[in-house]
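My current task is to audit a protein record that another person submitted. I need someone to confirm that the token line plausibly describes how this chain folds. Take the sequence as given and treat only the tokens as open to question. This is what I was given:
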Amino acid sequence: MKRLLVIYALFALVLPNTWSMGFAQESASSGSPIYAGTLSLENEGIKASGPTQEQVVEASLDDDDEDFFMLDEDIEAEAIEVADPIYYFNKGMYHFNDKLYFWLLKPAAKGYKWAMPEPARRGVRNFFYNLGFPIRLVGCLLQGKGKAAGGECGRFLMNTTVGVLGFGNPAKKYPSLNPNEEDMGQAFGRWGIGNGFYVVWPVFGPSTARDTVGMVGDFFLHPVSYVEPTAASIGIKSLDTVNSTSFRIGDYEAFKDAAIAPYVAMRNGYIQARKKQVKE
């Protein structure tokens, strides 16, 4: 009972306020809410096109060439592959998202992690990933990746049936049922459409002009976007975000500690990760 009360308090008091800030949306992921998912931050009523801030952080922590942690002048000396004409707005949104993470999302995720056992959290993560099937399928089809589209369909069918509505992930045992994750923004990149300019959205995190258009398309492909009333849709996506963040508490902190210029590192990391995704 005590744990149930904690969960209720988190979602009834903290999350609605968090997601209403600059919303009218969501994921317009990783880009996603601060963390997402996606952020999946993984991040959403809307799934952001491209890597979420969470994925950028994870990639940066695994990067051996230290590109993410260079001095400001060293980074700027390199050919930055995206324009940043609204630098001051983006920098302000970066700091806004930073505070939102430390003041709201992280405390909520820590409380949720305490209240929910890991097997249950893994099941929730699997369920929401399974729900994102339409986004990944359309992303594959728009790029002419028939084999990957077939793999997505096979994974969805197996996880929805054998995996009980996606809470289980039996398809993970079969490489052919686990193609690279695709989205509409990635498809635009494969078509030859450039990034445009870099932008950091409040709540959703890093993105580009191209990926912002892509995440609007992803929004209409995500089933949660059609849940009524809107408050219920926001609450469902909030659960996804907090659950996803509960697995990665500490990653963003490590990223900030390691990066001399966190904003620049985040920007370059996003563009590098996105470029890699488009090529795959």
Notes: The mean pLDDT is 80. DSSP finds twelve helices and two strands in the chain.
